[in-house]
Amino acid sequence: MKKNKGITLIALVITIIVLLILAGVSIATLLGENGILSQATKAVEKTNNATEKEKVQLACNAQMSKNAEKGKYTIDVEDIDDIQEKLDSLKAGAKITEGSNPIEVVFPNGNIYAISNGKVLEQAEVGKKVTGKNKAYTNKGTAIIPEGFTIVPGCDDVSEGLVISDNEGDTEETGKDKIAEGNQFVWVPVKDFSKFEREAGYYNGTKQECEFVSDKLTSGKYYEPKGDGKTVETETTGTEKEVQDMYKSVKDNGGFYIGRYETGREGENVVCKKGATVYNNIGWSNTDDMTVETGGAVELARKFATQESYTSVKSTLCYGVQWDAVMRWMSNIANPNVPGKKYIEDSTGMGWYGNNYKEGNPEHKTGTDIESGVNNKSNKVKNIYDMSGNVWEWTMEAYDTSIRIIRGGGYYSNYPVSYRYNYYSSITGTDYGFRTTLYL
Q: What is the pLDDT of residues 274-326, one digit of tens each?
């Protein structure tokens, strides 16, 4: 008898299973997240991005060369038209965002590249520490993210206050009474550098009539003539250089960073953290001689960056011109307590003023939310806490050779956030503190 040869049903099933496994492996290798096609797509995207960035950098280099012939060694918003012309000649297909500072170059595929001081910056990622060099981040505006800092998740809208931290794990919510792990700062955009100057604040809802305000920085002197026409002495050499460096940084980078919180303290160390005890009972310095810049807020603010081992930014006490840049940025914020009035005109209820601090913030902690009715969390504006109320804040602005300007009003008063007041620089008190700023 003839015998029929074949395979058993079990062998057939096993064969099919093996084939399915091999097919799955092949498909995963080809189409998976890290598959051949995916990697090829990423490689093409990376190549295209490199090509785009190269074209932008070529346009920048050409403009830098052109500017150097005129003795100008940087690129700013005045060069936008020329850079656009160069991009067009390279057939980049990109357009520069009108009025952007830093300069934003947008490609048809949505890629955005920021130009800062003649360099095309890489894009930062939210929640991931910037390493190697400063990067840019674009979301309703562009901010420069310093090396060593991280964009805090949930606070990445430049127009509403982009927040950075020196601790990669920081989040928006750190707990009501918990001190955040990292120091936090908010990017203040300065799109039009021609308006980066001091201007009058408000008192009783109207502009102040005072001699504190002046034109832009001239001849390296921040210490301006008084309104009566009498010229006073200039600042120290160190302060004059600091002013020049700060102004240049703001112009080149389109903004600066201000402490999200009033400056706090951990022991004798300066911190810019939520939930810290505010650093009060401090004068501008320890004397009324403006040439002595030790023993007070100005010295502590300047040492902060060194204390924290920052290498990409410098710290200083908030300048009057910086405070007023924040006021312009906040100028459209309405006060729900005072119909028809803006926050910068009348800050009633939007800060720890009068008696409310005794119930809600008796220890003057930094970044403590107001939690009542219409004023709920209203002491946070553009993601910056307590610019009005809690403590008066010393600034670098001067009134004369022995008197410095304080801003924002303390818990004993109800002065609006933009209001200027002045005290001898050695004065101290429980309602005297300060705020630290950073510039690149």
A: 999 999 999 999 999 888 899 999 999 999 999 999 999 999 999 999 999 99
The highest-confidence range among 232-236, 254-258, 273-277, by mean pLDDT, is 254-258
Euclidean distance between CA atoms 425 and 66, whole angstroms? 47
**114's tokens:** 């920021």
| Range 54-60, long-range pairs (CB < 8 A, 24+ positions) | 55/87, 55/90, 55/92, 55/94, 56/87, 56/92, 56/94, 56/105, 56/113, 56/115, 56/120, 57/119, 57/120, 58/86, 58/90, 59/83, 59/86, 59/87, 59/90, 59/92, 60/115, 60/118, 60/119, 60/120
String of DSSP letters for 33-94: TTSHHHHHHHHHHHHHHHHHHHHHHHHHHHHHHHHHTTT--S--GGGHHHHHHHHHHTT---
Total residue count of the chain as it appears in this document: 440
Q: Of all helices (H) and strands (E), which one includes residue 303?
A: helix 297-307
Distance from chain centroid for Cα 389: 22
In angstroms, rounded to a whole number, what is the distance separating the alpha carbons of residues 152 and 239? Answer: 32
- Note the Cα 136 to chain centre separation in Å: 12
3-state secondary structure of 31: helix
Pull the structure tokens for residue 245: 């460096």
